[in-house]
Amino acid sequence: MFALRRSRSPVPGFDGRIEAERVALRRLASSDTSAIVHYVNDWDVAKQTASLPWPYPTATARDWLLLDAERWERDKEYVLAIEARDSGELIGALAAYMTLRTLSGTGRAEIGYWLGKPFWGRGLASEAVGAFLGFCARDLLLTRLHAYVFADNVASGRVLEKCGFTIGRILARSYPSRGGRRLVHRYARSLP
Asked: Which pTM does this prediction carry?
């Protein structure tokens, strides 16, 4: 196993864990490597993400995890593991991606998430995204979030709609690792 570099919490007041009914959100750990590799290597999971490499080797997961503390410290990307509360197992991940506009003070960010296929269809993604919204508003001080969902990913669109997001635009974007140009729905939501 390898060790993740941990420093002071770059998010004042965040204790590193958010509890919901059936899931918890927490910082990533080196012990998550095998679960990440296992779930992301399922093409049904990977194909609905914009940039996860596929296949996804263990070395890629280790590299991604080693950069976690640096991403938090630079206010660039806040990734949290989605953990099943009953087992403590990592079942997915979600993130708020900061853009240059966010860094310049507009309070906006893009979110993304994935969930392991065995956990689909149970409302766990909606629960995780709902809990993540509170973190984005309270701890990251964001005022607006958006997400891009492939048009054929109806289930992910439903997750966002359950969490108060609405479709703002439908557009074609280039995703070379996912077959070229794809239609995407741009969802958005204001935070209280």
From this structure: 0.89
